[in-house]
Amino acid sequence: MRLLLYTANDQLVAIKTNAISAKIEEEINVYHQLTLELPLNQSNKDDILKSMYIAVATEQGDGFYMFKIEKVSFGDSLIDITAIERASDDLYTQGYIQDRRFQSSKLSVALDAIFNGSTWTYEVGADTANETVNQDFNFYYVSRREALKKVLELYGLEFQFIYRITNGKITARVCKLTKALGRDTGYRFVYGSNALKVDFASDQTDLYTGAIGRGSGVEKTDESGEATGGYTRKIDFSSVVWSRSNGNPVDKPSGQNFVELPEKTAKYGWTNSAGVKQPRLAIFEFDDEKDPAELLNKTYQQLLKLSEPQPTVKATVASLKRKINLGDNFSVVRYGDGWKLVYFLRVTKLTRDLLDDNATQIESGTESIKRQAEREVEATQATDSIKAEVDSSLSDQEARARSMINDFNAKLTQRIDSTKSSIDKVLAQNSNGPITLIGQDGQPIAGVPEIKEIRSKDGSFLINSSGFKWGDHLLGGDSKIYADEIAGKVLDSYTINSTTINGGKIIGATLTGTVYVNSISTRYPEDQKRWAVISGDYGFTYSAAGRPGSWITLDAFSIGGVVLTAEQLRKIKEKCGV
Fold first, then answer.
1. Which of 16, 304, 361, 504 has its CA 20 to 30 A from that of 48?
2. Bridge partners, 26 (sequence order)
3. 146 with 287: CB under 8 angstroms?
4. Three-state secondary structure call for residue 33
5. Nearest one of 37, 45, 31, 40 to 19, comparing CA atoms
6. In Å, how far are 311, 377, 533 from 30, measured between CA atoms?
7. What is the pLDDT along the chain (578 residues), one digit of tens a residue?
């Protein structure tokens, strides 16, 4: 096993063959990670300090993986190195996509927008080349990495990043895309015989029998039809009707905002106080979906994948005695007293030992299993960084400030709606047990049995052991209050996430991070409006009657109505390094 070390400028530094340990963690549609240990000596130390990248030959022999060094630790006798697949860094830092919009586009059109202008090219499998997505989507102020993630989801693809190296020189960087990595191996393993070391389990972490689908938020407009920057609640599929008699897979009446698999509810559902089985509900988010009918179909397809416990298998390659790679399919057979189960599984995660292939570990599940990596991505999406929109009618700085506020407001609204729905579901399921009525003596009131919940006849008021609901306002079991307005005199808090503060004063505060302070004059008519913006990116800027400018170029300037002398202005510029 050889490790090729490269500088930040892709110059070969050295080739190492004396690693003490080296492992690559591979997972479908997750950027690979390399961990390795080298002996601590002067040569290794000097070479590592010169290097930014490490290349390793692929198992398939079609090129190299390359990793960006993230962390280096020098111990008493070892050098510990952790590195992430370089493509993750390249596609995040090599420019961005400002504004590209697509309508029922072929895959190649979207990929050209992502990779053109970067150091990467792409190759697509024969089963993928003519793929078309039948919906509109766009890239707007996003990194190439984020845009690629969106394409993978929309077109249902999987990726692999390969470097081609000749005589130590990098000659190509290729993103290979296909419908599914790996191959159908035809391998059949019998639990208890030729797979003695297989650890067999059934994952019920995500098991649902019904699902609510939430699509794109609808942009709000003012009386003149101009976008306000806000969004209404996300669309759902309540208006869509499905009927088995018309060829649909299940019945879904009009007005019902969830789709259910009745047979699965009968098997796995929860039982209410009347002894009736209820669906285990999930909420699936499809942020780019604007068509209620397609939203229902996507929700149904996702529900199918998660409506049964997911079998998983962990094993070492040595116990399987076969060469298996990421994405490969195989079957596991398990016999019992009078029964036999056959599971068709796929390698979804692999920890490859570069020094001893027999120690390589695989993790497999049904192809439908929802991986932990996907759950982490979903959680991260709720707190994605805010992206700026440029309004050409305003100064660039003021427009960025307004856009960031609008975007944050939309995301905050969507997050609140989503969380309120989640808490509402928990309250409805009353998952935390009964309520006991306590008397003045602190003891349960004699003769009064425990109750399940207290609710009004119309259901608008509800209290149970999971929380408290009145109308559309919630106090949830996660210690959060959700209401349209909270009135009071004092709010003691460590963090306030907000978009608008009307009136009042901010005293003794420190503003950090990306900060925009915007002041608009009211002394002038609309067509002569003037404003000033202070931002961390551009310092102080101003605009008069729609003509933006910078204080840096001014020979005269006033603050708060006081005109500064030329000497005062010169000293301020000098302090600012202008």
1. 361
2. 350
3. no
4. strand
5. 37
6. 21, 10, 41
7. 899 999 999 999 999 999 999 999 999 999 999 999 999 999 999 999 999 999 999 988 889 999 999 999 999 899 999 999 999 999 999 999 999 999 888 899 999 999 999 999 999 988 777 788 877 888 989 999 999 999 998 888 999 999 999 999 999 999 999 998 988 888 877 766 554 445 555 556 678 999 999 988 766 666 766 666 565 678 999 999 999 999 999 999 999 999 999 999 998 899 988 889 999 999 998 887 888 999 999 999 889 878 877 666 777 766 677 788 899 988 877 776 776 667 778 888 889 999 988 888 888 765 433 333 343 344 344 333 322 222 333 344 445 555 666 666 666 666 666 666 666 665 665 555 677 778 888 788 887 777 777 877 776 777 777 677 776 677 665 556 766 666 666 666 556 665 566 666 666 666 665 566 666 666 666 655 556 666 554 455 555 544 555 555 566 666 655 677 778 777 777 766 55
Residues sharing a CB contact under 8 Å with residue 577, sequence separation 6 or more, in sequence order? none
* DSSP string over 276-339: -EE--EEEEE-TT---HHHHHHHHHHHHHHTSSPEEEEEEEHHHHTS---TT-EEEEEEEETTE
Element (H, E) at 420: helix 396-429
Q: Which two structure tokens, joined as six digits, stand for 415?
A: 């997050």
Calpha distance 414→498 (Å, rounded): 14
Q: Tell me whether residue 368 is exposed, middle or buried, using C-beta atoms within 10 angstroms of its C-beta: 0 to 12, 13 to 18, 19 or more.
A: middle
Asked if 19 and 81 touch (Cβ cutoff 8 Å), the reply is no
- Classified as helix, coil or strand, 511 is coil
b/e map 394-412, b = 16+ CB within 10 Å: bbbbbbbbbbbbbbbbbbe
Which among 1, 22, 332 has a CA at the least distance from the CA of 187? 332
Contacts of residue 34, defined as CB under 8 A and 6 or more positions apart, other chains included, come to: 22, 23, 24, 25, 54, 56, 65, 67, 81, 82, 83, 84
Cα within 13 Å of Cα(575), Cβ side: 7
Query: What amino acid is encoded at 131 in this protein?
Result: E
**How open is the CA angle 349-351-355, to the nearest 5 degrees?**
155
Instruction: Quickly count: other Cβ atoms within 10 Å of residue 568's Cβ.
Output: 13
How far is it, in rounded angstroms, from Cα 377 to Cα 392? Answer: 33
Beta partners for residue 506, in sequence order: none
State both tokens at 523.
């002394």
Q: Read off the tokens for 32.
A: 């690979």
Q: CA gyration radius for the chain?
A: 30
| 425 DSSP 8-state letter | H
Burial class (CB in 10 A: 0-12, 13-18, 19+), 204: exposed
| Cα angle 372, 378, 379; round to 5 | 90
**What percent of the residues of the chain are helix, what percent strand, and what percent coil, each to the nearest 5?**
20, 40, 40
Closest CA to 111 of 198, 178, 18: 178
**CA dist., res. 103 & res. 115, Å (int):** 19
Q: How far apart are the C-alpha atoms of 230 and 220, rounded to whole Å? A: 5
Give the whole-angstrom CA distance, residue 201 versus residue 154: 31
Q: Which pTM does this prediction carry?
A: 0.53
